[in-house]
Amino acid sequence: MDDCEELIPEWLNFVKGIVDSEDLPLNLSREVLQQNKILKVIRKNLVKKCVDMFTEIAEDKDNFNKFYEAFSKNIKLGIHEDAQNRGKLSEFLRYYSTKSTDEPTSLKDYVTRMPEKQKFIYYITGQSRQAVESSPFLEVLKRKGYEVLYMVDPIDEYAVQQLKDFEGKELKSITKEGLEFEDDEDEKKKFDEQKKELEPLCATMKEILGDKVEKVVVTDMLSESPCVILTGQFGWSANMERIMQSQALRDSGGMSSYMASKRTLGLHPTHPIIRALKAKVAADKNDKTVRDLSNLLYEAALLASGFTLDDPSQFSSRINRMVMLGLSLDDEEAAPA
Q: SS3 for 91-158, per residue?
């Protein structure tokens, strides 16, 4: 009881106070005291009182900003651990976004700004705000006018796994497969034609990349980048994979192998690089340049999508070969004397 574990949950460990109760039995063993029903009632009331106090603090913007800066991790831990108060705690969350760059926005304010046809609350997780702001995943969503929340705290990954929705709007990661938009029939028909047209290129790139990717597909998620790495809906995101890999006592097998991201390479069908590569594959799919470019595009997409390279030296060698090609040098000329 020294740590008050039975009185207050771990996510409220920053709260200090005195509990005055006339109902606690005296002269009983510690074990009996810990199992006392009165303690459960006290715990429930303490949590309720704390949440009410947070609500009062939230009414003053400046005070709440100071509070959130100091204890946001505790709020997010509460969302992860406390199912009963998850909905209420979600009202205290604040994030920067594509439309709120000067100050963090609440989920409630996000929902009020949603266009009528938008069904989901979109978010992206990453190592830093700078990294997610330049992410290729944002390209089409920005163009369509959809707001995306920036979740850059490692604990966000855990919290958002439990917080499935807010006010009936499902939270949706934009880095995972299955993201669909309300396109008109002409756009859908055009996209289907592009997918069929690029089937030989997708098959060739899958053959070249082998087990590095689960599949190669055409995606409508991009408007500027040639390709991107998408992850499975139920596995880890690139950011979560990075967090788990940095754990000192991580399990290298077992659950980690099941949850590790199933990588899908998504191609932008109208990008000049993809069109040129399609032409090269049509001319000769066994061309060494096709193999080099496929691997280079995959590795560049890995970095842009938030993953780390499995073999940086191979990536470096490929970049050097591309530089030599650009300078019209052959291997003998490039070798040091």
A: CCCEECECCCCCCCEEHHHHHHHCCCCCCCEEEEECCCHHHHHCCCCHHHHHHHCCCEEEECCHHHHH
Distance, CA of 260 to CA of 138 (rounded, Å): 23
Q: What are phi and psi of 14, to 5 degrees?
A: -90, -5
123 with 171: CB under 8 angstroms? yes
How is residue 305 written in tokens?
A: 């999508």
- Annotate 222-243 with DSSP letters as a single string: -SSSSEEEEB-TTS--HHHHHH
- Which pTM value belongs to this model? 0.85
| Residue labelled with tokens 């809906």 | 233
**For the chain, what's the residue count?**
337
pLDDT band at 105 (very low <50, low <70, confident <90, very high): very high
In terms of phi and psi (left: phi > 0; alpha: psi -120 to 50; beta: otherwise), the region of 254 is left
